[in-house]
Amino acid sequence: MSVLSDLEARSGSTCELCTGTNNLEVFEVEPVSISGVDSSILACQTCRTQIEDAEQMDANHWRCLNDSMWSEYDSVKVVVWRMLSRLKSEGWPKDLLDMMYLEPEVLEWAKATGEGVAEADKIIHRDVNGVILENGDSVVLIKDLKIKGSSQVAKQGTAVRRISLDRENAEYIEGKVGPTLTVIITKYVKKI
């Protein structure tokens, strides 16, 4: 079975956030360490648009989180926590956040994108030119780099796709150079 059909079976062919039934698609919950049902939700176009673009946010649409916050699936709870954190200035989401409980590893996953962290406390990753890097971006190496723990050398000009950001250090990102997942220092990359 495909991820889409598994999610449709799990959710009864409704959006796992608002129970809408129009334009349902798989939404991968960042950061994706393993793809599949456990790291995805089935979401309608309205929810997906507002998750991806904060300027499209309609706070009243998200009152549905009052029900979906009790989902048994971690990926759904992560998205609910992130949306409630994003909306907590509205007042009512703060009450729902206070009621919500996430296991420590699920809470860590929810916080991985920086939601719920004050702007002043967020770690910002920048490439050699000062351009802000985000999870999932692609970068190119600006110099040859020896890959620690192997004899491999990543050549200048090598593209590294779908990077992950280190949440504790603004100078580190992770990405695959060939088959090897490695840590790369941001001053040696340029965003593509």
From TrEMBL:
SUPFAM superfamilies assigned: Prokaryotic SH3-related domain (SSF82057)
Gene3D superfamilies in the record: SH3 Domains (2.30.30.40)
Domain of life: Bacteria
InterPro entries for the chain: PhnaA_N_proteobac (IPR013991), YjdM_C (IPR013988)
UniProt GO MF annotations: hydrolase activity
Pfam families referenced in this protein's UniProt entry, alphabetically: YjdM
Residues in coiled coil: none
Keyword annotations: Hydrolase
Domain PhnA protein N-terminal proteobacterial positions: 6-52
PANTHER family tied to this protein: PROTEIN YJDM, PROTEIN YJDM-RELATED
Official protein name in the record: Phosphonoacetate hydrolase
Organism: Maribacter orientalis
Organismal lineage: Bacteria, Pseudomonadati, Bacteroidota, Flavobacteriia, Flavobacteriales
